[in-house]
Amino acid sequence: MEKENNRNDDSAAIRNPGEPKIAVEQAPTEENTQAPNKPGLRIGLSVMVLIVAFVAWYSISDQFAPYTDRGTVGGYIARIAPRVSGQVVAVFVEDNTIVDEGDPLLELDARPFELAVRQAEVDFEQATQTINASSAAIVAAQAKVTQARASLENARTSDARTQSLAVRGIVPKAQAEASRAELNVAVAQVEAAEADLASAEAELGSSGRDNPQIKAAQLKLEQAQLDLLYTKVLAPTRGVVTNLELAIGQYINAGSAAMTFIDGRGGWIVADMRENQLSKIAPGNKTGLLFDAVPGRIFTGTVHSVAWGIDTGRTTSGGLVQNQPETRWFEPARRIPVRIELDGGMDHWPRNVKLGGKVTVVVYTAGERNPSAWIGMGLHRLQSLLSYLY
């Protein structure tokens, strides 16, 4: 019994001295297990704060500083085509040539049309001989009328586009006034030519002017003269010729596009905005524009208009609209084009920017003097500096 008691005492003695030691070792172990959790908690909270801040800014910016990187440079594009058919005998421009209004672009073989004019003149002389009248004065007067009317048609087309650009501030007012003056001159030239023709017709007498054969011959002569003028295709305005698809000797039909013409007097930006960004966008809003072709510089513009609709791509079958099958979890947002004019017009248009170039756009729907606009400007400025790299 004594030995057992001694062993128990010894074992107790062994345990008792070790217990404080074990307790001392366990305390640091608990602290060590808790200490790594505190930095992880702080990092997690920081990430959550950043996510909440990003979502808040994203929703606020969509209303007061909507942004898109899907902007495109737009402009007036015309497919140049002759009004008469014929063989190309001369091409006066090369691809990407800058031309002024009235510069010749191409010329068709005029010989068939010259023969048509001569035939029309002969027919007209025969018609006038039936009443013993002279046709020379009328032929000359009719040629002047045809030329004046063709010039007036070109002047009206050019003036209509110039006045449209002037209303939006793209071209200066002085240029619009000069264009209107040119139109008035063209109108006066037509009136003068028609007066000369009326005077020549008056010499035929009342029976001559009302003669159906003379009227038919006169109309045929005017058409032949007009076709002869159309053998030369001229530049409608100042611009650039591109996508040239012509060669001398090629036969081209009337209305077939021979080249693409970009009007150099007008350009704009089309920004594709998500539908939930359009609630506060309105004509007159100021914008910041960053062209990829001009990194590091922010231009300013003004919202001109918002498109009224887009093509959803839906087709019909048997007169009914087909249902589009859904294959994605999240339907991408639809985007509506917003047209933006560059402030200052074409005089401030960057030289390196081409039609179809990429533009990033920020619209300041609440003005430029508020925190959302300042943050948007700062981020846009940062992006302009980074655009040197990509």
TrEMBL record:
Residues 1-38 are annotated as: Disordered. The chain crosses the membrane at residues 41-60. Residues 173-203 form a coiled coil. The keyword Membrane applies. Its main location: membrane. Pfam families: Beta-barrel_AAEA (PF25963), BSH_RND (PF25917). This is Transporter. Residues 78-259 form the Multidrug resistance protein MdtA-like barrel-sandwich hybrid domain. InterPro entries: AaeA-lik-b-barrel, MdtA-like_BSH, MFP. Residues 1-12 have a biased composition (Basic and acidic residues). It is a single-pass membrane protein. PANTHER family: MEMBRANE FUSION SUBUNIT OF EMRAB-TOLC MULTIDRUG EFFLUX PUMP, TRANSPORT PROTEIN COMB. The keyword Ribosomal protein does not apply. Residues 269-363 form the p-hydroxybenzoic acid efflux pump subunit AaeA-like beta-barrel domain.
